[in-house]
Fold:
Amino acid sequence: MAWREERTQKILKELKISGGIPDQYLEAYQSGQIKDGDSVLMLLIDEEWYQKKYVIPRGIIPGPKKPKNLNSFLFPGLHHLCAIKTEGLVIWNGAQQVSFTSHPFLFIATADGPGMAFLTGLVGHRSKMGCHLYCGLPGWHKPGGLTYYPALLWPDRTDSHPDIPIDELPAVGSFDYKTNLQHIIQCRNMAKYEQTWLETGITKPSIFCGFDTDHILLVPLCFSSDIMHVATINIGDLLIPLWRGTFRVDPMDNKFTWDWAVLTKDAWKAHGSIITSTTPFLLGSFDRPPHKPAEKINSGYKA
Structure:
């Protein structure tokens, strides 16, 4: 806690000098939502076991299948957290020989892409309004297709789809969550509900809507994006088959016109040899050396 307070003051001084704009954490600190001595928490749902000093497992959801109702597993812990937020948690500071009352602040809740849909009550990433940060950027699908993609540039000028510059993306929380949630709650039949969640991106109220807003960022600002899997798995799983010319395509597409498909035949084997030759230069923290992808590649984790 003392480290957080010291770092916060240092960052605020740097922003004052540079004229920078505070982020959501600093705004909550300056407004008094987060006070000195308060614990700032992150809730993470993951499929992995963590053995880190500052990562404390709150509970275990038994498998092997995913839970049908994630809220039933989250509710006991979140209910206890709400009680601590209200009453405060008395903590003894051994360094200063004093006790103080801490009011935990749930700053962020996160999971991988599919898991975020359970936490947020929003639709999945393949739906029309699939942004988990609720920026309001709509997705688009192919004629007759069911999967929506957050396409920014439209390749066919005959369509009315507007191009969206990458530096003009909507801000986090730009879509009106509170109003749209009311539209969902007021649906009286399944047809109306399905049409509304398609247009709003909301399937149900999030369990985090039950928190006192003094001790949590407003929904959906309390949710984060899944950047880790995008960079380490998703992009690799897309680029490698494109470079190898093995990507699944529509019948009208012709792979022989792909001038970017350069990792084929001997070039692919040579690329694999270069990868394995880097083994002596990798740190031990990498756990195991990369395989030669020309001989063994079955997931995005492979180099």
The chain has a mean pLDDT of 84.
